[in-house]
C-alpha cells in the first residue's frame, strides 16, 4: 500500500459552503454557520467554496470573507480547512484570479493562513496543468515565507484530461521540478465531467459514472492521496445517498461530498463499523436484514417459507419449492445468508488472531453461527472462515479509519463512545498497533 503523504489518511466528508451570499446583510453568514459545526455535523474537510457555490460578482468579497471568518473561528474548527479557488485549464485569466485570491488569503498579516490546511483546485486538465497549479502554491508559500509544501493541494476531476492525468502522477511526483507531493484529495466532479464528456441520458439525470469513481480511487491509492466522490444533489434522498456511499466504499472511495449538515452526519457515520452485527438473507433476490428475537434471527416475509416435514424440510423460495434434509437445508441457507460484523465483532476477531499469531499460528478458523427462524421453523447454521495475515490486514481498514477519526476528531469522542461503548472504543484503539 502506498504511504499517505498527509496527516489524515481517511477523509469521510468534503463539505462546501458559499463564501459570499448576494443580497444578505452579512454576506458571510453561510461561512459563519459552517464554522460553528461540531461533532458528527462537522466535516473532516470544510471547503469554503469561492468557485461554483459563489456568484462570480461576489468572489472578491468571498475571498475577504474567508480571511475574516477563518481568522476568527479557524482555531476552533475541528476539521481541516481547504478553501476552493477558481481555476480553469483553458483560461489564464481565471487561473490568475485564483492565484491572486490565494495570495490574499494566505497573507500572514491577515491571520487566516495558520488555520488553512490547503486549497482545492477545480477544472484541472492534463498533468502540465496540475504542475501550473502546484507552481502557484509554491510561489504563494515563498511570497509569504511559508514552508514549501506546507499548503496541501486537492484537485477536482472534472474532465477526461484530468482523469487521464491521474495515471501520470506516480511518474511525476517527486521530481525536483515540482512539489506534487503536496497532493491530498482527488475529488470527482461528475456534473462538469458529464459536460466535458458530452454525455446524455434520456431523463437528463447524471450518469452514475462508476468507471470515473473506480479510476479516481485507483489513482488516489497509487499516488498516496485520498479519493472523494462528488456531490449527491438530491439532498432529500437519504437512502440513495447511503447506497452511493456503500457502492463507493467497495471501490475504496471512503469519502464523499456533502452539501448539508445532514449529509455530513450520514457521510461521517457510513464508513464506520456498525454498532451491532446483523444477519442478511437473500429472499428471492431481495436482501433482507433479519430481526433478532429471543436468540434467533427472524424472517417473516412472504418471499421465502420453511416448514418441517416427516422426512426433513420444505423450503420455498419464490415459486420454487424444494424438499431438503437438515444438512442440505443448512447448506442452502448458508448460501443465502451473510453476516455484517459489528465493531465489537471485528475487534474480537482481530484480538483472537493477534493472540494466535503470538502463539506461532499463521491461520485460524473463526466460526459464525446463528439460529434462523423462518415462518416459525427454526434451524441452526454455522460457517467457518479462515483468518490469515491477509484477512487480518483487510479487516484492519475499518479499524484504521476509526483510529484515524478518533485521533483527529476529539469533538466526536463522546458520540463514538455512545455508539460503541467506552470499552469497545478503547480496545479498537489498541488493535493492530
From TrEMBL:
Magnesium is among the record's keywords: yes
GO-annotated biological processes: oxaloacetate metabolic process
Cofactor: Mg(2+)
UniProt keyword Magnesium present: yes
Recorded GO MF terms: catalytic activity; magnesium ion binding
Keyword tags: Magnesium, Metal-binding
Domain Malate synthase H C-terminal: 279-393
Pfam families xref list: MSH_C (PF25918)
Name of the featured protein: Malate synthase
Species for this entry: Haloferax prahovense (strain DSM 18310 / JCM 13924 / TL6)
